[in-house]
Amino acid sequence: xxxxxxxLPLAFVLLISGVYVLLPIGSAAEFSLRQPATQDxxxxxxxxxxxQPEFAHxxxxxxxxxxxxxxILLALLVPTVVWLNLKGQKLRPFVDFITLMPLVIPVVxxxxxxxxxxxxxxxxxxxxxxxLYAVLAMPYAxxxxxxxxxxxxxxxxxxxxxxxxxxxxVTIFRVISPVIRGTVLSALFMxxxxxxxxxTITSLLHWDTxxxxxxxxxxxxxxxxxxxxVFSLAAIFIFLLLVGLLVKxxxxxxxxxxx
Amino acid sequence: xxxxxxxxxxxxxxxxxxxxxxxxxxxxxLPLVSFMGVFFFWPLxxxxxxxxxxxxxxxxxxxxxLALAEPYKTAFSNSISLGLIxxxxxxxxxxxxxxxxxxxxxxxxxxxxxxxxxxLSTTGGVPLAFMFIAAYGAEGSATAVLRAFGxxxxxxxxxxxxxxGVIFVYSYFMVPTMVIVFSPAVHGIRREWxxxxxxxxxxxxxxxxxxxxxxxFPSFISSLLLLFAAxxxxxxxxxxxxxxxxxxxxxxxxxxxxxxxxxxxxxxGKALAMGMVFVSLVAMIPYLLIQRRASRWQ
Lengths: 259, 298
Hints:
The structure holds 2 protein chains of 2 kinds. In chain A, 78% of the residues lie in helices and 2% in strands. Chain A is an all-alpha fold. Chain A has a two-stranded antiparallel ribbon with strand order 1-2. In chain A, helix 1 crosses helix 12, helix 3 packs antiparallel against helix 9 and helix 7 crosses helix 9. In chain A, 39% of the residues are buried. Chain B is an all-alpha fold. Chain B folds into 2 domains: 35 residues, no CATH class; 232 residues, MetI-like fold. Classes of the chains: A mainly alpha, B mainly alpha. At the A-B interface, helix 1, helix 3, helix 4, helix 5 and helix 7 of A face helix 2, helix 4, helix 5, helix 6 and helix 7 of B.
């Protein structure tokens, strides 16, 4: 009886949060299936999306930009975070601070700055967006990598490998890489998802990607734009949830996350 | 072997203060630091620099005078209210959820809530705005469901395309953000402390008044500041929702950049952006200080 009473607030919170999270998703999904012309439900709005020639084009553009952004980000962050965990403890506060700044500074300010300061050749190439997306995803990717890697006794295992006669190349590729793979994958998927959905910088620098295209078509076909929004949100939800549930950190030592 | 290793490490830590060793350390973070320098700090520096220049490049404060006059004054006050109201209305339920889940949920449930919150906190932008318009619009079925339970959101003069509507939409990613940033603090209130306090004769209320609340309050405030900064500077959702009907600073900057609004002073947008940076820094510096303090006991 007493145990039941204790579980009551938990059940209440779960119920309310569940409704709060799922009601708009479900309701928007239902809305996107409405067919005003025939007053019934069907996949007409979704079919309309696939009939647009721009759809595949902009999904491709956004994906390419997001992929390049994620590669840049990981190529920069993975060695740096491994280095910080192995040797550079003293520099950690400084790097923590730098990587947090994109969260502090409004994106609009960075967009104006990029437009104002970057040279002509960089501004006329759409892949400049990848570099800026990498900056914006930095706080999240850095935190993910750092939390994941802190849980692994990197120093101990690399010293053990070195003690057993492995050189640095072998240590990095055969010892460190396998244990950090899960964490790196989570950071990769998070930066892919964030970059894919970026709107502010893209729109202020006057480039067209998937997200800006959605606002453009909303002016021609609201139902289509809603279907597209539901589709992209649901795709990203499922993608990130699967990643979150499947890719577990290498060890279960993470008893508390640091944020 | 281990003896020599320990000795050599001792040596390394002593030599660590010498410049050769420090140089090696800095080389390791140089790629990241230069990347941030080129693509983040340099652009911001250029905004700061130009915000003090007139159209001919001479020093002036007139951009800031203009940025603090109407209509931008109203926009700043709208944006700050949006940030504050949004932060408070999301922080309170978020903190309650974090507390209940952390104190009563099992390991599995806590992990599940953490991953869901992680996903929800990254939503936003245009798709989120359209999702809410579909669900909670006048014709939406979420509106109909709520009405069936006796909650009519349109009984007053609420519309989604107002400040209140934007706050409502923001809560969808701000409450989960609060759950993420506040959970470690709740987790840090160790059960043993409660037991220790009880053993020493404290009542439940005394524990909360003297130990629990003082420990959680700084983290609550710092989380609140983080939410404020997020809501204050959000652009995409607000633009899609209000399409300019509510004066907010990021939207006004966007209008200047897009050329929808022409101003004689070409650096006005930069001064407005610096105004936003200033407000964000005022909110975030206490956040960083409190986080650092709180991490000592968490």
